[in-house]
Amino acid sequence: xxxxxxxxxxxxxxxxxxxxxxxxxxRELNLHSVCEGARCPNMGECFRNRTATFMILGDICTRxxxxxxxxxxxxxxxxxxxxxxxxxxxxxxNLKHVVVTSVTRDDLEDGGARQFAAVIHELRNSIPxxxxxxxxxxxxxxxxxxxxVIEAKPEIFxxxxxxxxxxxxEVRPMASYRQSLDVIKYVKTxxxxxxxxxxxxxxxxxxxxxxxxxxxxxxxxxCDMLTIGQYLPPSFxxxxxxxxVHPEVFESYKKYALSLGFRYVASGPYVRSSYYAAExxxxx
Length: 284
Prior knowledge:
This protein is an alpha/beta fold. It has helices at about 15-30, 35, 45-50, 80-90, 115-125, 145-150, 170, 175-190, 210-220, 245-260, 275-280; strands spanning about 30-35, 55, 95-100, 130-135, 155-160, 195-200, 225-230, 265.
């Protein structure tokens, strides 16, 4: 995993007290966060600021992406109390912008789309003027599932392409680059008022030309917002880290994407899909 020496710009400390406090609250409500599940390096900072990205539909995934710390295996039944409990947690944290993601549930006919919609409706009923951002799986390209989430009217619909297409077999073997692009385009075509977002990670062996091709593809598929961050392997068993990308390179990709017409771009070593999500919405 970390055979390359970690550079000076990757030295964030974890806030264990905040992680324990927010983690305990989530456990009490039988909820999960992608912050914990994916071992996000920003977890301590976000929990200290009393924000979290909720992960619905359990903590076991039906896919085997080699960049992700969330385990795959036998999944649990869908929890009908989850939408209400999630709204309770969001209210306790005094959130005005709520980010909801999920594990991939290929075992469900709708991929979990109805649960996303139920969560959005519950949040709207519980928190006045709340804005909601969803980070969804690809639902296997199921347009009916996408429509279910679209009709619940999230402010932001995020689906990550994650990496360049030539690395999919190695990094996302059960996913399709073209299908991920099509998810973004379908959402924007069906509901132009919804802000579309996607993200990718660097350090897996991609070239500058390949990264710019992905940025171009996303722009051409009606993506409004873009996040670019550094891949940090969760263990020795995950996809091999090839490079720590310098912050100046991240900045150059940001400038390139903005020059194409993206409405918002966050690009840097610690950038993740939902990092400072509420602040990004105010800049649109």
